[in-house]
Design brief:
By secondary structure, the chain is mostly helical. 55% of the residues lie in helices and 2% in strands. It has a two-stranded antiparallel sheet. The relative contact order is 0.17.
């Protein structure tokens, strides 16, 4: 009964396999550490921008799962490098014989599962981010004026810092500020007829103006910032309302943040894919090296030709037997025919 995916490993191929695994394991540890840093960076960015994401947006799941997966990959690489190096010396290999089994199980089930889950989350992130930013930025704009409402006191400062840092204005553009009241009623003069007219002309009683906060102003503009009456072509000399980008930030914050976070997630996704490939190669190589050395009593330069394999000899037949038994158990038993009535025996004539 032959093992599953068996491979003959003479002396020189065994040594080259151990040396190649040592190099691959260190490469896996390096990539795992870089993936760990990328995951942490994305998690920090999401924490800083959490105010502008919907509370129901589960975007933090990606970096959290990626942190766990990259930590397992880093551990697999470090242990794999030690085991492959020790396998070249018969005196140092025995302590590692009990480590390789749990390492292979943990790396395959734990690390592989986490990496696949993280890759799936990375692929689904763009749609989740789009929806979360759309809702979160809309809420942030609506809360901009509530500087004295408990729980919203920092909304104005955070949004101003966001627009200044990321060079953006509004959710999708500067005109988003025209549709909300971003000036607190505390700072409105109730005796000003213009204020009264604007409030009374609005169905919801809001004070709407065609202006933007100071944080929308582009400091690279050669002229002083224009924040009000942006829809009136005659309000400001030499200003064309059709080209406000010369004075204000051109892009909305939704587009800027989406591109920024998608770029970080794309980098993390590529790192996860490379980590998954390297971890697969390291685990496969360690399994072949482990089974080959077990056949030689843990001595890599032992006499004879060793055989490495993925699964032992009886696994295939065991699975086949279990499958067939399950099929037989699921197959309905044929209905038994009712026993035929025996014909009545004729009585013998009496003597």
């Amino acid at each position: 009964m032959a093992p599953v995916l068996a491979l003959a490993l003479p002396l020189q191929p065994r040594i080259r396999l151990a040396q190649g695994l040592w190099l691959l394991s260190w490469l896996l540890a390096l990539v795992g550490a870089l993936t760990l840093l990328c995951s942490g960076h994305l998690l920090v960015q999401l924490w800083h921008l959490g105010t502008f994401l919907a509370p129901s947006c589960p975007v933090a799941a990606l970096p959290q799962v990626a942190l766990a997966a990259s930590a397992v990959a880093l551990g697999t690489g470090l242990v794999g490098s030690g085991a492959s190096r020790a396998s070249l010396d018969a005196a140092h290999y025995p302590p590692w014989r009990g480590v390789l089994g749990p390492l292979l199980v943990a790396g395959t089930a734990g690390g592989g599962g986490l990496l696949v889950l993280a890759l799936g989350l990375a692929l689904a992130l763009p749609g989740t981010l789009d929806t979360g930013l759309e809702e979160g930025l809309g809420t942030a704009l609506a809360n901009y004026k509530d500087t004295e409402v408990p729980g919203r006191c920092q909304a104005k400062r955070l949004l101003d810092e966001l627009q200044l840092r990321h060079h953006c204005c509004g959710r999708h553009g500067y005109k988003d500020w025209f549709g909300i009241q971003w000036v607190s009623s505390r700072y409105l003069d109730p005796n000003d007829q213009d204020v009264v007219d604007r409030i009374q002309s609005n169905v919801e009683g809001l004070y709407l103006i065609d202006g933007v906060p100071f944080s929308c102003c582009n400091p690279h503009s050669p002229r002083p910032c224009l924040q009000s009456q942006l829809s009136d072509p005659h309000a400001h000399p030499l200003f064309d309302p059709r080209q406000p980008n010369l004075n204000l930030w051109a892009q909305g914050c939704h587009e800027v943040l989406l591109g920024h976070l998608q770029g970080l997630a794309s980098t993390l996704g590529n790192m996860l894919a490379v980590t998954f490939l390297l971890q697969t190669l390291v685990l496969l190589g360690l399994r072949y090296l482990q089974t080959a050395l077990e056949g030689l009593g843990g001595v890599i330069d032992g006499e004879g030709e060793a055989q490495g394999y993925l699964f032992p000899a009886g696994l295939k037949d065991m699975l086949k037997t279990a499958w067939l038994q399950g099929g037989v158990a699921r197959r309905p038993a044929p209905e038994e025919a009712p026993p035929e009535d025996e014909p009545p025996k004729e009585g013998l004539p009496e003597a």
